Amino acid sequence: MRLILLGAPGAGKGTQATFIKEKFNIPQISTGDMLRAAVAAGTELGVAAKKVMDAGGLVSDDLIIGLVKDRLQQPDCANGYLFDGFPRTTRQADAMKEAGVNIDYVLEIDVPDSAIVERMSGRRVHPGSGRTYHVKFNPPKVDGKDDVTGEALIQRDDDKEETVIKRLSVYHDQTEVLLGYYGDWAKSGQPGAPKYRKIAGVGPVEQIRDSAFAALSE
């Protein structure tokens, strides 16, 4: 099972990625984790990436694709792999295609912006333990207080409504184009084209999980 998960920030990709990883016994590949591992290991690509990052630059697509190809040689990728948060642009998607990175499925988790804003801006966290609540879906027993310690809950900057709206705007501008990119490629019938599946990302987590598994078995 070699797949790419697509969807807006807050669509629940991380949660579903965990279920998919366990079911198919495949690693979740995130470019952030790969970069950190390559830098820590001092590989040739890691050293090159560190130079760019230390200078405050953005690591080039070519470097990222090099890291991806290296990562896919690792033994834990024998059963496949799951990309979450990559590719982010059509240029990166083209580079993956040119590098011969095979993809069986592209799974889109579709959630309306309004639901994402409600989902993320309602989150509250207990800083000491990391326990999370939601003002509507999973409220604490006492408003604004952690159930265990009674200490104040906070809203992380990432979860503030204006931040969520800004992140969604960036997604629509830069990454949403991939839905059409992979959808059109899937319809093309070209050799090596992935299957494209779209599921609704609203409702109980288990229901979304079952929809994902069903989509990936078609």
From TrEMBL:
Give GO MF terms, alphabetically: AMP kinase activity
Q: Which UniProt keyword terms apply here?
A: ATP-binding, Cytoplasm, Kinase, Nucleotide biosynthesis, Nucleotide-binding, Transferase
Entry annotated with the keyword Metal-binding: no
**HAMAP family (alphabetical):** Adenylate_kinase_Adk
Q: Which SUPFAM superfamilies match?
A: P-loop containing nucleoside triphosphate hydrolases
Q: What's the protein called, per UniProt?
A: Adenylate kinase
Taking every annotated instance into account, which residue ranges of this chain make up the domain Adenylate kinase active site lid?
A: 123-158
Species whose genome carries this gene:
Herbaspirillum lusitanum
* This protein's pathway: Purine metabolism; AMP biosynthesis via salvage pathway; AMP from ADP: step 1/1
